[in-house]
Amino acid sequence: MARVTLRAVLSGHGMAELAETAELLTSEMVTNAIRHSDGPAQLRVRRLCESRLRVSIWDTNPAIPAPFDTPPGRLDRLTALAEAAAKADDTHGRGLLIVRLCADNWGGYPLADDLFGISGKLLWFELTPLRSKFDIAA
Protein backbone atom coordinates (compact mmCIF):
# COMPACT_ATOMS: atom_id res chain seq x y z
CA MET A 1 0.00 0.00 0.00
CA ALA A 2 2.84 2.41 0.88
CA ARG A 3 4.63 1.79 -2.42
CA VAL A 4 1.55 2.22 -4.60
CA THR A 5 0.54 5.39 -2.77
CA LEU A 6 4.06 6.81 -2.95
CA ARG A 7 4.34 6.15 -6.69
CA ALA A 8 0.99 7.86 -7.33
CA VAL A 9 1.92 10.89 -5.22
CA LEU A 10 5.32 11.30 -6.88
CA SER A 11 3.85 10.91 -10.36
CA GLY A 12 1.11 13.42 -9.60
CA HIS A 13 3.67 15.98 -8.40
CA GLY A 14 6.13 15.65 -11.28
CA MET A 15 8.68 13.60 -9.32
CA ALA A 16 8.21 10.24 -11.05
CA GLU A 17 11.98 9.96 -11.67
CA LEU A 18 12.41 9.40 -7.92
CA ALA A 19 9.73 6.71 -7.66
CA GLU A 20 11.82 3.57 -8.07
CA THR A 21 14.42 4.45 -5.43
CA ALA A 22 11.84 6.06 -3.14
CA GLU A 23 9.66 2.94 -3.29
CA LEU A 24 12.56 0.65 -2.38
CA LEU A 25 13.70 2.77 0.56
CA THR A 26 10.15 3.41 1.79
CA SER A 27 9.39 -0.30 1.65
CA GLU A 28 12.46 -1.09 3.76
CA MET A 29 11.66 1.57 6.36
CA VAL A 30 7.93 0.78 6.60
CA THR A 31 8.78 -2.91 7.01
CA ASN A 32 11.12 -2.00 9.90
CA ALA A 33 8.41 0.13 11.52
CA ILE A 34 5.93 -2.73 11.36
CA ARG A 35 8.42 -5.35 12.57
CA HIS A 36 9.98 -3.38 15.40
CA SER A 37 7.03 -1.56 16.97
CA ASP A 38 3.78 -2.77 18.43
CA GLY A 39 1.63 0.22 17.61
CA PRO A 40 0.60 2.20 14.57
CA ALA A 41 2.98 3.63 11.99
CA GLN A 42 2.64 6.57 9.64
CA LEU A 43 4.26 7.53 6.33
CA ARG A 44 4.78 11.15 5.32
CA VAL A 45 6.01 12.38 1.95
CA ARG A 46 7.19 15.95 1.60
CA ARG A 47 8.75 18.01 -1.17
CA LEU A 48 11.46 20.13 0.45
CA CYS A 49 12.32 22.23 -2.58
CA GLU A 50 11.84 22.04 -6.34
CA SER A 51 13.24 18.51 -6.65
CA ARG A 52 14.21 17.29 -3.16
CA LEU A 53 11.99 14.66 -1.55
CA ARG A 54 11.81 13.70 2.14
CA VAL A 55 10.06 10.51 3.21
CA SER A 56 9.47 10.05 6.94
CA ILE A 57 8.18 7.04 8.82
CA TRP A 58 6.89 7.37 12.37
CA ASP A 59 6.33 4.43 14.70
CA THR A 60 5.72 3.94 18.41
CA ASN A 61 9.06 2.33 19.27
CA PRO A 62 11.33 5.06 20.73
CA ALA A 63 14.59 3.18 20.02
CA ILE A 64 16.49 4.70 17.13
CA PRO A 65 18.69 2.11 15.42
CA ALA A 66 22.35 2.90 14.84
CA PRO A 67 23.58 4.70 12.83
CA PHE A 68 20.32 6.65 12.37
CA ASP A 69 20.83 8.03 15.88
CA THR A 70 23.65 10.31 14.64
CA PRO A 71 23.97 12.43 11.47
CA PRO A 72 25.69 10.70 8.55
CA GLY A 73 29.39 11.48 8.27
CA ARG A 74 31.49 12.06 5.18
CA LEU A 75 32.74 8.47 5.24
CA ASP A 76 29.40 6.81 5.95
CA ARG A 77 28.90 5.64 2.38
CA LEU A 78 32.27 3.84 2.48
CA THR A 79 31.37 2.28 5.82
CA ALA A 80 27.99 1.22 4.43
CA LEU A 81 29.65 -0.34 1.36
CA ALA A 82 31.97 -2.35 3.63
CA GLU A 83 28.99 -3.48 5.71
CA ALA A 84 27.11 -4.45 2.54
CA ALA A 85 30.05 -6.58 1.39
CA ALA A 86 30.17 -8.28 4.79
CA LYS A 87 26.41 -8.97 4.71
CA ALA A 88 26.23 -10.07 1.06
CA ASP A 89 24.80 -13.48 1.96
CA ASP A 90 22.39 -12.28 4.67
CA THR A 91 18.70 -12.65 3.92
CA HIS A 92 17.51 -10.04 6.43
CA GLY A 93 18.77 -7.08 8.44
CA ARG A 94 19.91 -4.97 5.48
CA GLY A 95 17.01 -2.51 5.10
CA LEU A 96 18.56 0.52 6.77
CA LEU A 97 21.87 -0.31 5.10
CA ILE A 98 20.14 -0.01 1.72
CA VAL A 99 18.75 3.37 2.81
CA ARG A 100 22.26 4.54 3.77
CA LEU A 101 23.62 3.45 0.40
CA CYS A 102 20.91 4.96 -1.79
CA ALA A 103 19.64 8.09 -0.02
CA ASP A 104 21.22 11.54 -0.25
CA ASN A 105 20.61 12.14 3.43
CA TRP A 106 18.97 10.25 6.28
CA GLY A 107 18.44 10.39 10.00
CA GLY A 108 16.12 9.90 12.91
CA TYR A 109 15.00 11.46 16.13
CA PRO A 110 12.92 10.46 19.14
CA LEU A 111 9.48 11.89 19.76
CA ALA A 112 8.69 12.40 23.45
CA ASP A 113 5.14 12.49 24.73
CA ASP A 114 3.69 15.87 23.91
CA LEU A 115 0.37 17.64 24.20
CA PHE A 116 -1.19 15.30 21.63
CA GLY A 117 0.27 12.08 23.07
CA ILE A 118 2.58 11.36 20.14
CA SER A 119 5.70 9.43 21.05
CA GLY A 120 8.08 6.98 19.45
CA LYS A 121 10.54 7.87 16.73
CA LEU A 122 10.72 9.32 13.25
CA LEU A 123 13.18 7.95 10.70
CA TRP A 124 13.59 9.75 7.38
CA PHE A 125 15.53 9.87 4.15
CA GLU A 126 15.94 12.39 1.34
CA LEU A 127 16.39 11.96 -2.40
CA THR A 128 17.13 14.25 -5.31
CA PRO A 129 16.83 13.28 -8.98
CA LEU A 130 20.58 12.89 -9.54
CA ARG A 131 21.02 10.79 -6.40
CA SER A 132 18.14 8.48 -7.26
CA LYS A 133 20.17 7.15 -10.17
CA PHE A 134 22.98 5.92 -7.86
CA ASP A 135 23.97 2.41 -8.83
CA ILE A 136 25.17 0.38 -5.84
CA ALA A 137 27.10 -1.98 -8.09
CA ALA A 138 29.12 0.81 -9.69
Task: Describe the 3D structure.
With 138 residues, this protein is of the alpha+beta class. The chain contains four helices and four strands; from the N terminus they run ααββααββ. Strands 1-2-4-3 form a four-stranded antiparallel β-sheet, covered by helices on one side. A hairpin with a 5-residue loop joins strand 1 and strand 2. Helix 3 packs antiparallel against helix 4. The radius of gyration is 15 Å and the shape is globular. Mean pLDDT is 82; it is low at 131-138.
Brief account:
By secondary structure, the protein is of the alpha+beta class. It is built from 4 helices and 4 strands, in the order ααββααββ.
Task: Draw up the topology in text.
Elements: H1 2-12, H2 19-36, E1 41-47, E2 53-59, H3 76-86, H4 95-102, E3 105-111, E4 120-127
Antiparallel strand pairs: 1-2, 2-4, 3-4
Task: Give the fraction of residues assigned to helices.
Answer: 25-40%
Taking all residues together, what is the mean pLDDT?
82
- Coarse morphology: globular
| Tally of alpha and pi helices | 4
Cα separation of the termini: 31 Å
List segments where confidence is low: pLDDT < 50 over at least 5 consecutive residues: 131-138
Largest sheet, in brief, is: 4 strands, antiparallel
Q: What is the chains' assembly state?
A: single chain
Strand composition percent: 15-25%
**SS-based class:** alpha+beta
Going across the major beta sheet, what is the strand order? 1-2-4-3
Radius of gyration: 15 Å
Strands, total number? 4
Along the chain, the helix and strand elements come as HHEEHHEE
